[in-house]
């Protein structure tokens, strides 16, 4: 995993919390998909904490949409989003995607 982007999973497989830290940009997206895809296998995310992101762009939105899509496909609720940086909230509003997530 890149030193610029890190994640941490807490909890058990039935109620996991994903914390994202560092830079989550389009440049880090391929690596994020690979590493998170493996780590999230068989887990039900209940919350995604974005407070640790120091830099994020539409790549972060793409990753969140992917996670939401995987949850729906598995018949699970879309995880809550906490610590959403203001500029990502603006992107969600711009793309009319705020209804996809439960924003705390």
Structural notes for this entry:
This protein is an alpha/beta fold and 104 residues long. It has a single domain (5-103), classed as Transcription Regulator spoIIAA (2-Layer Sandwich). It is 36% helix and 34% strand. It has three helices and five strands. The protein has helices spanning 29-40, 58-73, 86-94; strands at 5-12, 15-24, 45-56, 80-82, 102-103. The protein has a five-stranded mixed sheet with strand order 1-2-3-4-5, with helices on one face. The chain starts with a strand and ends with a strand.
Number of strand elements: 5
Structurally, the number of domains stands at 1
Major sheet: arrangement of strands? 1-2-3-4-5
Low-confidence stretches: none
Whole-angstrom Rg = 13 Å
Please give the largest β-sheet: 5 strands, mixed
> Overall 3D geometry?
globular
Q: Order of helices and strands, N to C?
A: EEHEHEHE
